[in-house]
Design brief:
- By secondary structure, the protein is an alpha+beta fold.
- Helices cover about 40% and strands about 20% of the residues.
- The strands form five sheets. Strands 3, 4, 5, 6, 7 and 8 form a six-stranded antiparallel sheet that branches.
- A hairpin with a 2-residue loop joins strand 3 and strand 4.
- Helix 8 packs parallel to helix 9 and helix 12 crosses helix 16.
- The radius of gyration is 30 Å and the shape is globular.
Amino acid sequence: MKKNRGTIILMPLLIALVLASGIYIGRWMAGSIQGQKVEFYNHQFSDNDKLNQVISYIKSDYVDTITDKFIVEETINDLLQNLDPHSYYIPGNKYNEVNDPLEGNFEGIGIEFRIRKDTVIVVRALAGGPSEKLGIMAGDRIIKVDGEDITGKEISNSKVIKLLKGPKDSEVKVGILRRGNKLLNFTIQRDEIPLYSVEAAYMLTEEVGYIKVIRFAKNTYEEFIESANELKSQGMTELVLDLRNNGGGYLKSATDMADEFLKEEKLIVYTEGKSRERRNFYASKNGSLEDFPVAVLINEGSASASEIVAGALQDNDFGYIIGRRSFGKGLVQEGVQWPDGSAMRLTVARYYTPTGRSIQKPYKDGVEAYNNEAIERYYNGELLSLDSIDFPDSLKYETDQGKVVYGGGGIMPDIFIPLDTSNVSRYYSNLNYQGVFYQFGFDYVDKNREELLKTYTKSNFVSEFKVDKNLIDSFYQFASNKEVEYDAKGAELSLGLIKNRIKATIGRNLFGGSVFFEIINQEDNVVQKAKEILGTKKSS
């Protein structure tokens, strides 16, 4: 009985072992089971063979039908994403969306719009575009496109863009409802619409100019020179170049800009990779700004081409780099495009500053950690205190004039300015995060545009417009309606910032980006420090 009991206990285990062994052996011997083909592999089996067989197996035996296109695109995408953070694949239907900002233009009707209460409202007709030429105005409601109603809950930004963008010289019929008028019908001939890189250019003082560059596209250099020349005609002899939160773009635009500050034959940047020999980029001419004291503003959002400009000036002992350490994107991508419109950006080299510093920060911990590194800087105190930043001696480099600069990822500024949190309350942060300032500014201008334009011009708005008690009370009520609960202590602490931001967003909706930054920069500690340093250095 005991013997039988032991047999009973062991038998299931033996059966399980036999089954497991059978499955294991069956896989490797590839026996003909449920239609599987018998295949025997030799010792020459390679990794390429494995990949091809996986793809073939998926196509032939996967439970659902999978297209070749899906397999190829998913494989390429995953492969590139695992190489480094900046190699990537672009599907054919996304190519223009990715490429347009760098090309510096797109084809469409030339408006900036916003959806409010299920209605498309024109924020601005872009200068020189077809909509502006036809007299389409800020505040106009677009309710029909080619006879199709585009109001209601189903409307989205992507749908509006799809309807309004299109090839140059093609036509689109647009029905517009204007305040106080019946429906107006326009036939708009689409055209190339410029995407501007210079968001603001104005005089900070009688001598100090300010230029804000938000991207490095094909037309960035030309815009920059045009803005610089205009400011010079207004008396500019010193310049604040704001590259904060500029994510970069084309290398040539960056080297051309740096060339304007550096003497001929000065090294701007060089690239080098495993299969790419070192390539040097030099200043090629006498620049128009060589004699201009310049302060370049950077922060953790300044990347790639922005870092090339900042690094070139810093390593050549020209100007002052002010702010916080830049992002650290120093990988060079080359593009490949296929006949179906899809494309690949593959990293082939690294950028190095003239002293030999690699701009690229480490990415060995994966893409997510790489992208979150800038956030980690806040938690480890780097954004708030210079003492929190510690560079080992191995990362120290020297310029020709003996100035110590640091590698290891990003550009460390000459003059560190911490993130200013002194008057920033949780209430103010919530207002910013929820986009309340922008929404309020848009609605206020939409309701009062005619009266405001009778009272103010672009030149006097900054000095004369006041955020009075009635306006700020209206703002608080508006914020409450947007589910940002009023906080009396937070409002008191951040009152100056709140008033400044309200005025700036109203100014932007009336007169554009330069007015916005002219106002917002009055409370910006980095801009104010740059203005102070330029004045001091010039007089000393």
